[in-house]
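Contributing new records

If you add data, match the layout below exactly. Sequence lines come first and carry their own label; structure lines follow with theirs. Keep one chain per record. Anything else will be rejected by the validation script.
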Amino acid sequence: MAVETVHTRDTAKTAHTSPSPSPRAADRTDAELLVAASVLLADAALAARRTGAGLTAAGSSWRVGLQALRRPTWAFGAALTAARAVTNPAGLGFAANGGVVGEAVRSLGAVARRRPAAVAMAVDAFALRIEAAAREHPNLAAPLAKRLTDAVIAGRRFEALRAARELVDLFGVTRTLTTFSPVIMELLALQGLLDENPANDSFSWVTLAGGVPGTDPFLGLPAGLIRHLNPGPGRAERVEPDAMLARVLSRSGNDIVRYIDDISALGNHGLALLRRIDCADGAQRHVLLLPGTSFGRLRNGTPQDLVGAFDAALCTDTTYTRAVKELLVRAGVPSGSELMIVGHSLGGITAMNLACDLDVVSTYQLTHVITVGSPIDNKRPLDPAVQIVSLVNKHDVIPGLDGRGPASAYEVPASWLELAWLDETYDYPLSHAPQAYAATLSGDDLPHRARVNALITAYDGEIVGNQPYQLLDK
């Protein structure tokens, strides 16, 4: 049986804006109160960090050095006051950051495990998010799982590793990964804050503020390095469907479950599909179907590989988007044509990236982007009139990789439709498979299938073309 959660939300908040206190706080669930408290702590942590950066800049400014030549006593006193402010254990703690001097001092503090007040508050904010998630996902509150999360929060890495090993021995890798999927971004951010490596702190602070990290959580490597691994210009070649794909496409129609079935049949070895429909109102419209990632190899010569997935999550101009744009040109889709894009996983991310592409939105009339199990909440289409529909199985690890997990305080725009549920496909990767999404939407427990189909009735009509394309990096 599936449990339904529906979100149609206001524009995403940032951690710089505190939530207004509810006049009926007693009516709110414990999880909501925990998330609200985490936002307040995040605000305080970010403010303390900015204050530390400001004091560091003031104390290390060349102006202070210039004044020291003229008024040495004043300059010495000012520098001493700033130094005390950023190192006072009862205040900001070891809070120097920003600039060459600040980052050098911060790095030394990280190596020496000197924790500033901003980090302490950030850790508490993440801990509250994890506790809030445990209210909806009770497996997180199981003794061994709680032992791991408590160890990560306390910075006891070896204890966390031992707990993880015991969990893997007991449940296996997939069940362990699924257990922690609701809070994976929080755990990674905590790891970055509390280790001795200052280079990966940016990942943690951006995650705390609800942004999109531009570095990896372990070494702090910038996303630009991934782009060097994914340099292809993108290419699209017409191909003929094999017998199995042709059979699936022959029974397709303007229905979200059918679209997901079609994506399943396309596989994830580089195929995409462009469909032409003579619609009931006399217009000809197009539907683009984009499959997700192949997990077999880091790179496989198509945009649907792991390198492409990392690139798409952090950027909008990718090999996948460039290959799709060539597909649309080669197919001769007329300028101004109405277009709907349906994508699973990486395909959904790419659909949103295309909605962020000026060439696409200025050439075609993009009407709908429907994503299935995709981490897209950090992206915004250039045209706010595009109808965004996000389908999410809450047991699925992948949608939470955009930083907005079940306990996140940050919300998607009100014009978006996010339909989320809990079903019986608990373990990843089964919970992420398009077949699992199609099976849940086909059931009688949820109204989501009818709700999505009601939004896309303009595409009802006769299918007059189903053309697969092989997408390649080069």
